[in-house]
Amino acid sequence: IRKPKRRPAPVKPPVAIERAYFRSINSAILSPIVRELRQQFETATTLEELNHTVDRIFNAYVSKDSAKAVAAQGLRRIERYHRAKIIKTLAPALGVDLKNIMSEASIAPIMSQRIAANADLIVSVSSRLKNQLTEGIQQVFTEKGFDQQALTEMAVGRFGVSATNAKRIARDQTNKTIGDLTKVRHEPAGITEYIWRTAEDERVVGEPGGLYPTGNSRHMNHAERDGKRFRWD
User: Does this model's pTM top 0.85?
Assistant: First the structure.
């Protein structure tokens, strides 16, 4: 491999693809659940009937296979974006044709791991939504009886919490997938080191004045790593 002509630009997490991933989770799983449940509020007459309906709806929309299909769609979109960016930024810097080392086989293990992990996260969010809806329905019946408006407001509120969690999954997993793919594709190209760059926003762990200014045991301190060089291994 020739000596790099210039430092290649980093592959940054794309906001558009992150949002597309969230929309996939929302449209395939979360929105249909809440939409159908709201329809049932118009016809169900007993608490037992509503609880049975919740079970039926979640069994219809939430499974490991359905979550895996959504995760695969989102992560493959990320992979295609990453592949194009890597070829565009590294080929001029290294002076070589990278297509031969960008094989599907080289990323298959990491993609399989990420898809499985993402499917588990999607199922987890859906399971929490089911528990929250079941508890919410019980609470509404206890306080107001069969109040369709109260039930609908409760469902919309629970859905909002789940949507926020789904957005977090889409953002975090886009970042992690891009990081994993960069490592897998850099090392065969002879790149053994990288420079840590933060997102430079309020979510950066350890950023003074941000949401997590003191860091934490899981992520340590990202802000203090900014600009420092690390080995992939």
Answer: no
